[in-house]
């Protein structure tokens, strides 16, 4: 129902790009975009953009206040493939319908979204790819 | 007094049906030691500036021949207002709706004093609510959730459990399931309304429960409930019922 609402002209490009999941991952980068790990680090660290550190901790020492709700992101690139990380950011409800982690690249099933955020996913396709590229670099030291 | 307050705040409750014992825990216990110390000492608690103003307003007669003060109708607040805040919001039979403490103050001002309402979050409104709330300090939260209030209570529970906003989180996600965890730097409290209006360090000022709920709603990028609306009252009633047995702490101090 949100999807059928007419989009304002400025946001004419599709806010959410289609993707194909395979198993517990999304193998192909969204819209074929290449991610940049340095940009991804800034997105993950920023409380207003990625908001990831509200819930997670991670190897981003300059951010003093980190969350304890989700798993530590340190070493996530050793535990998960880029495809698996991508699905967990795009729409973790596909793996766990009850998850508290928001679906970052979806606008489906939302209610009472504030006016400034209506019809927009939390992260656009490029931002998702940047975050995936950064998390994939988080390898266990061993 | 402070020790008693802390002990009352630890009142144990049994979660019906589950059999698990969950500790009902005031946000006081999740605040840091300095914040708690400010609340413990009335001379250090900045909210007492508002309480003092509220006490003055309680005795002030509005201009006009037969202008009556709160005191003229109710008498000594320590007696007349004792326990009132612990029971809000409550069903109002005359208007057939739920009303909270601030709305009751509005009604007295309009109907009995011929005065305009005090605007939301205005210093005067917070001052009177803090002064009246203080008269229930230490008493257990004891709102009625049955009878005519039952439908609003059920609706409030449904709202509490519904996910809202771009971040798609419910009150229950954070305050039932993740209480005690850290959301970035903040410990997530159980979300009890037993200290309002509060002095909040982050605001550097006083604020109502509506203001607190607006912060939580905009935090998840949701459209807040309009203060005083049926949705807001239902949610406030559910929160008050959820906090039953906790000691009223008004005016509390929070980070």
Quick structural gist:
With 142 residues, chain A is an all-alpha fold.
The dominant shape of chain A is globular
Secondary-structure element series of chain A: HHHHH
Number of helices of chain B: 11
Query: Looking at the chains present, what oligomeric state does this protein adopt?
Result: heterodimer
Structure summary, number of beta strands of chain B: 9
The count of β-strands of chain A is 0
Poorly predicted sequence stretches spanning 5 or more consecutive residues of chain B? 3-21
* Domain module tally of chain A: 1
Rg calculated over all Cα atoms of chain A: 15 Å
Helix content of chain B: 25-40%
Q: Report helical residue fraction of chain A.
A: 25-40%
Walkthrough of the structure:
Helix content of chain A is 27%, strand content 0%. With 142 residues, chain A is mostly helical. The relative contact order of chain A is 0.24. With 255 residues, chain B is mostly helical. Chain B is 40% helix and 9% strand. Chain B is built from 11 helices and 9 strands. Chain B has helices spanning 2-9, 33-40, 48-59, 70-74, 77-80, 101-112, 123-134, 150-160, 171-175, 209-219, 230-242, and strands spanning 12-14, 21-23, 90-92, 97-99, 182-183, 186-187, 198-200, 205-207, 253-254. In chain B, β1 (12-14) and β2 (21-23) form a beta hairpin. In chain B, α3 (48-59) packs across α7 and α8 packs across α11. Chain A binds chain B through residues 47, 51, 53-55, 64-69, 100, 102-103, 109-117, 120, 122, and chain B through 162-169, 173, 177-178, 181-186, 217-218, 221-223.
